[in-house]
């Protein structure tokens, strides 16, 4: 009995050694030369495969970086230090002051303050809902709140709060996946440092907007008057923060937006 | 003549509900104070606006002109003063429109007058008059009629089919029109036949409208039009199904009826063509059924284009109780409305109110693959499978599985036990495929 | 216009209107209705089963239904589909599971079977609509592999006549015969007596055939009209639900009449078995296997053909596909019955064909209207 056990143990060990050696030899003989830097770069990448860089996943991107067809700062997700590390691996120079961009949904009309003109019965998806009666929300430019962007976000940074999509800037890595999912084009990329936004996207006339939404930008220009030139851009009845030259956060208090459409995102 | 009943594949047979309004004669709506005429009422390019604020227009005057080949002119429904507005369109979006405040005189423009010599006109002149009258398909699709009447030279048209199937439940506008203005429809048919140079003209009518079949048969032979009874089955009135039922030809996938040598026109369109050619009247009014259980007095009305739904329902005596849905068009393909500002357009065959217990309540259950949609689909597609593909955003696969052949008739969703909004899935899929092709 | 009249004309309140895609009508069918109709159609054979096997059968059915519902509730909720259990499909799976078991089955075997059926047959794939295999078949196959002895041991019905050739050899144990002597039939509440077993008609015939010991006399006996009548009413050993042919046919015709299932799967399935067995029957001289009446009425064919091969989720959608599916099931069933390792092959055949369903669906897709039938080229 015992000898049988020993024999099988020995056999298994021998087999393991022989096979292991064979594999090792074959691997050496048929080795495909791969730049070891690819692996190093990939380690520094976030590994979320979000596709924000325009490549099919992080390893593809790593190959592109090493191959020279992409630069590390194309990754919208990586922290600055990772970019630096990657650059060091490759011996590249990077601009140190790259500002991280995050997404923001420029609509403030949730279920309480925007008018829904009728009930909707259909697919729980914004892109499908706009095909039916252009969405039942009174404002034809506002967030439908069915969460197509939230489902598209690989980082769970978008939350549907009372029928309105809200981006959590601290979770958002700026991969940009949500932007094209919004049939109303409400999601915009903004520098992370700018924390004040005009939460409205409707180009309609002030009174028409007020009829369907209590937090719309009615085009009163109070913020525009209180800001320095070009910090707020007026487009008809719609004020816009100039993200290249943002107004100071204090402008929210100074302007006293009558509908509360100009808001800070760090206050609450 | 033997009673032939023609068939096509698939289809459903919803409760007809036509008894509510089928015996109500067509009434002409009184002149209103105000009409809001939407400019873009048809498939194709939006027309070019010709008037400006505070202009005075006369009844029948062109207020927006055909712009492009596939387009149609729009005319003023009465005489009065113009105001340019944005109004709530039937598709829900805000769309440019012309509001005309009536001056009460209701004066026709000069060019509108009866032409006693119309029978001497050649086909080009007839076609021009149809084009000038801004006639579009009045069955629902609103495809400009003049385009259908100008087939490219390489397409040989040998069949003109008049669509009197009216397969949509509840609607009776075409039925009443055939009963009351059969003569006009047949005249229109012969004019259309002349324009196209077609000898074979048939008019397909579902055989639940026996009185209309009998009525038209009395005089049809005089106009050399054949009246063909059709099986009662939705969507018998869909162009492709109608052509198949009458001629046995299949319109090739992605093609138009002219690819099968046919031109299909709604009976209402034919009547409008007769008016346009004989009396030079533009298309400014149409017969519309106002019906549904919640409506006090269901009936058939001749409304001017631009009559708002609030007035339409007022004329029908208002409602008995709050409906769950308000539709423009029939219950199978019509569009749900949520504003009383929406106005009657050239293709509005009905205004329908539905009770809560009648309507489809869509859910988000998964497909159980029962295959009822496959059986019901008149285009022989796999709606359930397609909806799953579209749900998972596999639009390439959906295109390969022929989503573009869907005619959105709604037969699949009508029978779906999982209450899936299949037509909405199809709409989404088609929209994405079209966007991808660009 | 008449201003006075306006006041009493009511117009709809737009904010209470519902907006949805067309069509705005529906024929009123629902998944739940379909499921309850199937349950209703299963009732005749359940009642016959309980009548013949007594309270023991009722106990098995009840355990299966309740445990299926509980598993469905727990696992559907775990996967975030809170309302799945309400549609009644778990009741059907439970009922079918119970109907495919012997009345003498211990409760824990029932529970294990239902667990496998619901969890591994359905929920792991994403619940109703996504399961590739019929859940009840999966459960039953798992049990027959796990407990082969138990799953091929059957209890006699309460009214079994000991003179019938098919049954008497199962009542061999003399003391057991003693125990039930003097009773014209077993009492309803004590219908299962430990150690008293019997064979199924199929087992009686197919096992000797495979061993090469079948005789013409045996075949002649099992197909005389007296026996056939017993198969029809269900006074035979076997699973609770698969015994009474009449009850199953009534249920099946009810489902076809109510347009819940399509005729073509059951008809092609049963037809194939009938044709196949007739050919086999007459190709052997002397016939060692009984003919089509016997093959169709006994075993799980009817319950399989009417209730399991017609499960919508796991079977092809088109008519053509359905017929292919039915014929395939029929052939596999006969092959397993006659030459396979088990006396019965219905469950295996259905599961095997379930696996082919996506392929069948693909091949038999209807030609879209207006499309020329061209050879499909994959991109």
Short structural description:
With about 450 residues, chain B is an alpha/beta fold. Chain B is about 25% helix and about 20% strand.
- Please report the distance between the alpha carbons of the first and last residues of chain B: 51 Å
Q: How many beta-strand runs of chain B?
A: 17
Q: How would a textbook summarize the main sheet of chain B?
A: 6 strands, mixed
Number of distinct beta strands of chain C: 1
CATH architecture of the largest domain in chain B: Roll
CATH class of the largest domain in chain B: Alpha Beta
- Pair with the most extensive interface? B-C, 80 and 51 residues
| Rounded Rg of chain C | 24 Å
CATH topology of the largest domain in chain B: Ubiquitin-like (UB roll)
Show unreliable segments of chain B.
Answer: none
Spell out the helices and strands of chain C N to C. Answer: HEHHHHHHHHHHHHHHHHH
Which geometry of chain C do the CA atoms define?
globular
Structural class label of chain C: mainly alpha
Radius of gyration of chain B: 21 Å
Q: What is the residue-mean pLDDT of chain C, rounded to a whole number?
A: 84
- The amount of helix of chain B comes to 25-40%
Descriptive terms for the model:
heterotrimer, B: 438 residues, alpha/beta, Ubiquitin-like (UB roll), Rossmann fold, 3 domains, six-stranded mixed beta sheet, four-stranded antiparallel beta sheet, 17 strands, C: 379 residues, mainly alpha, 2 domains, 18 helices, 57% helix, 1% strand, globular, disordered N terminus
Describe the fold and architecture.
The complex is a heterotrimer of chains A (268), B (438) and C (379). By secondary structure, chain A is an alpha+beta fold. Chain A is built from nine helices and nine strands. Chain A has helices at 2-29, 36-44, 58-67, 80-90, 126-129, 148-152, 206-212, 222-226, 251-255, and strands at residues 101-105, 119-121, 158-160, 165-167, 187-191, 196-198, 232-235, 238-241, 262-264. In chain A, the strands form four sheets. In chain A, strands 1-5 form a two-stranded antiparallel sheet. In chain A, strands 3-4 form a two-stranded antiparallel ribbon. The model of chain A has no long low-confidence stretch (mean pLDDT 84). With 438 residues, chain B is of the alpha/beta class. Chain B folds into three domains: 29-111 and 282-358, Ubiquitin-like (UB roll); 127-279, NADH-ubiquinone oxidoreductase 51kDa subunit (Rossmann fold), CATH 3.40.50.11540; 372-437, no CATH class. Chain B has helices at 123-132, 145-148, 173-180, 182-196, 210-220, 239-247, 267-279, 309-315, 372-376, 383-391, 395-400, 411-415, 422-437, and strands at residues 26-28, 34-38, 48-49, 56-57, 62-65, 74-75, 80-88, 94-102, 159-164, 201-206, 225-230, 262-266, 285-291, 299-304, 325-328, 335-337, 350-354. The longest helix of chain B has 16 residues, at 422-437. The termini of chain B are far apart. Chain C is mostly helical and 379 residues long. Chain C has 18 helices and one strand. Chain C has helices spanning 3-6, 31-53, 55-78, 89-99, 107-120, 135-146, 148-151, 165-168, 174-180, 201-211, 216-222, 225-233, 245-257, 264-283, 292-297, 301-308, 319-339, 346-363, and one strand spanning 18-20. In chain C, helix 3 (55-78) packs antiparallel against helix 4, helix 4 (89-99) packs across helix 5 and helix 14 (264-283) runs antiparallel to helix 16. The relative contact order of chain C is 0.11. Mean pLDDT of chain C is 84; it is low at 1-6 and 375-379. Chains B and C meet through helix 8, strand 15, strand 16, helix 12 and helix 13 of B and strand 1 and helix 2 of C.
